[in-house]
Amino acid sequence: MKTWFHSWRAAIRIARRDAWRSKGRSALVLAMIALPILGVSAFDLTYRSSELSPAERVERTLGAADARLRDAEVGGVPIFQDPAGETHTTAKDYEDEPWPSGSTEVTKVIPAGSTVLTDTTGSAKLTTTHGLLMTEVRELKASDPIARGILTLLDGRFPEKNDEVIATSHFLETSGLSIGSTLSARNFDRPYRIVGSYELPDTLKADQINTLPGAFLAPYAKAVEKAGLPAPDTSGSYLVRTSGGFTWNSVKEINTKGVVVVSRAVLLDPPAPSEVPLNQKEGWGGYASSAGADAAELASLVTVVGLAMLEICLLAGPAFAVGARRSRRQLGLVGANGGARSHIRAIVLSGGLVIGVAAAVTGTVLALILTLLLQPVLEDTMGQRFGAFDIRPLELLGIALLAVLTGLLAAVVPAVTASRQTVLASLTGRRGVRRSSRVLPLIGLVALLIGGAVALFGSMVSQEVTLVAAGSALAELGVVAMTPALVGLFGRTGRWLPLSPRLALRDAVRNRGRTAPAVAAVLAAVAGTVAVSTYMASREAQNRAEYEATLPYGVVSAFVQEEGGRDVPAVREAVQRAFPVDVRADVGRVSVGKPGCPPWGGDAGCGRYEVVVPRANECPMYATVPGGGDPAEKYTPAQRRKMLIEDWRCKDSASGGMYVSDGGLVVGDAKLLQVLGVDDPATVKALADGKIVSFNRALVAKDGTVGIKQITDLAAADKASEQGRPAPGKVSTLPAYLVPDGRKSYGVQALMTPATAKAAGLSTVPLGLYASTDRLPDSEQRQKLDSDLAKLGSNVELHLEEGFVNEDGIILLSLAIFAGLVTIGAAGIATGLAQADAEADLKTLAAVGAPPRVRRTLSGFQCGVVAAMGVLLGSAAGLLPAVGLRLTEERDQLRYYEESVAEGWSGDLTPPDVPIVIPWETLAGLLVAVPLGAALLAALVTRSRGALARRAAT
Fold this sequence. Notes:
The chain is α+β, with helices and mostly antiparallel strands.
């Protein structure tokens, strides 16, 4: 007795044989399905392999130690921490009290009899073959068994003496050094020999050297301080191994001493969230995504996967239809020998099953092989080593089943169509006439209307981006369902076309079963491209309108804030040498304390300064009040808004541009005014007369002076700030000149010459330069400057004003190319099917005397017609999501603007402008170039003469 198993086994054997016979078509469909499977499987393998297990993470963090202990820097007060030791806070709330700070003695909490290994890190500018390189310096006895696993020795050996170091492979590559080379640091001439190379498994691109404890950082700090510079900051921890390890109760006990603990036992077996005191503290509980957020994320994932499968089905479906059409005689013989329609459907569906299984196997195997072979490349790209090559069979099986399902779905419509052919029509080659379904277009119209309504509701009422995306996807599916009817509407234009395009359009309309899927595939790809292009073009127009230049066009600035501007002369020469400089203005800054102090103070012997704003010039909403508090709260929204609009003290006094220094105070000469475009002769004269030039009215007192306060006691200044009092310090008063309104200074609030600063008792150090250029530097000149600055090893704040630059142009071009390739592919598949169907018509044309080129032109127009219809429909469908998203953004910005105005926090009464811009260049390329290119390509690859054969009797 024959069962369904035997019939399906026979159908699969027939499908496998047909797939092997038509290798080209089978390979095309297999590639379309296998490539996404390859990508997703490779991503799954890479993600799972890079996801470290708790044991692997512990080994890289702790090595063989039981815990890592470090100071929380809160003066030893009790703290709460998370089990991983990544987050901590004080156990007590210090809302109205100063926040505790200071160090504690970590060694006092280490259990007696423990084995301890110190791990200290700092930084230094090390000499290289190219110049100087800021490098992390680590002092850890890497040869100790406790440190095994924290770093991996690649070549050479571990340091054994105080003048030996090992370096990361990335540092050796960047610096040009090698094992056996010697290095030293700026301000520290002691040489160190490199005896080995290593890597940090979690940070492959780290520039780091490792030496024995106490061999580098302590003597380097002394040498730097001797040179008059502040010693670099260091941080340390203790790797501890003890009997019994550190339980969660032990960790909480050590936390009471202000010490953070990363425990092996806790990481491998973390406590329940209810047992973590940090989670009970307000504002510090664990953050978990809500059920609604998880559902939205899952819905987004399902939508993306579903649309991707739909695109593949629409592309592969016509290919299966080609196979079924070319095998119609074989299928007719099956029916003639007693086969039912279910057997015909089974044979065509088996074609999808065979291709789907082959694609699943091919994609999965290639993903395994490529991921394994490219593991070093993937690790270098990600910047970390895999924990293990982690293969999740169930996940790979689920991904592979998507390929099988995609193959079956792609063959459903061709299978149903083939089963409806009569035996006589299949054997004689008659195509028959069958009206297209009237129900499907109606369903599509309903889906289009509902989807459009949902998208508009999401953008105009609810402001939910998820609704906009869901509605747009539903509307696009509706347009896909309406494609057969829309293709019929296109056919009405054929009466005005010449012979070849008229025949191509008539053939596409008469055979909607093969035309509609190809048009829908093009539609889907083009719709996505148009949606993203429209959104990005609109954002570009908004960003261009809102762009504010940091400097005048073509002006370059370069600042060095560290080490008292030691590298500023070299930076100035590098800019002068690399760029076409017209006028160069060297600038400096006021310094309080030692010459090497940073501008913000904080180190021993270092202070800071303030540009004093007279009490009468302070905005009432921002003025400090004794005892602290927000002075703006005592005003109503209307009063705040009135002050922002009418009171000059409350208007935004900043003139735009970049942050230069505290208070925007710069030390320079008249060249800076020339570079910034300030051509007021009175300003130049005032600067030459020893006055401080102010671009901010609030800085100038009634007597025409500006005060600069030098603050040397930072602790007293911080305490005064907490109490709402002025910081104590010496005030130097200088005669000032207020620059007339309308002069844009690009962040410079006040300017004085070095002579004026010296006369006022103010110390200055070099800061950098401003320079105008004859022309905008090209890429080669910029690369040359970047290379020269990199050799200095300094943190150079470099900016070149080149106006608004659109960085999304390459993305738009890539999307257009992608849509073009999909369009040409889908149109090519439809053209191949059309040629299989129209062979009899072509022979008739040849018989009645049509020239050979008609065959080629007809093929080209068939491909072009499909591409043109898909591009036109896709362009219209793609505008909906882009417009919906922009309307959502407009409502968000308008709501924020209305709230700001209502609360009195904005004096700008101009509502935000959120334009919607159609990317006509992209649309023109899609509407004209892509169909034309598809038609020409199809015409070129089509033979002018077909094989001569008699017409089959009908």
